[in-house]
Amino acid sequence: MEVRQIDDRSSAIDIVGELTGDSEQALADAHEAASGQGTKLVVLNFSGLEYMNSTGIGLLVTMLIRAQRQGQRVVAYGLDTHYREIFSLTRLDEAIGIVDSEADALAHAVA
Fold first, then answer.
1. Which of 15, 41, 53 shows the shortest CA–CA distance to 105?
2. Interatomic CA distance for residues 58 and 66, integer angstroms
3. Residues 6+ apart with CB under 8 A from 74
4. Starting from the edge strand earliest in sequence, which strands make up the sheet with 10-19, in order?
């Protein structure tokens, strides 16, 4: 996972490869790195995701709770149809905004 600062209030986490139980520390570290002073939006970029299992979904829920405690909003893009459906079935899409691009994520967060 790679973390990018988008602007003063927004950071992105680029998720590459698999998101499974083995990713727990990497995701926690990435969220911590993305949570600089003043960060109000964390954008999850799933365009490099190859595989995610139920444990990976659980890790996202844990990260979402941490983000909410810090007053951050979480928005995601780059999910293929299969994972969009999983987000919908698990109702994760009600807590994490799902958009088509990073630009949409930034616009969605302001709206």
1. 41
2. 13
3. 41, 42, 43, 44, 63, 64, 67, 95, 96, 97
4. 2-7, 10-19, 41-52, 73-77, 97-98
Handedness of CA 87, 88, 91, 96 (dihedral sign): positive
Question: What are the DSSP E strand ranges found in 1-111?
Answer: 2-7, 10-19, 41-52, 73-77, 97-98
Q: Which domains does the chain have, with CATH numbers?
A: 2-110 (3.30.750.24)
Tens-place pLDDT, residues 22-40:
999 999 999 999 998 889 9
pLDDT tier at 109 (50, 70, 90 boundaries)? low
- pTM higher than 0.85 for the full model? yes
Q: How confident is the model at residue 107 (pLDDT cuts 50, 70, 90)?
A: confident
> Could you tell me the pLDDT band of residue 47, with boundaries at 50, 70 and 90?
very high
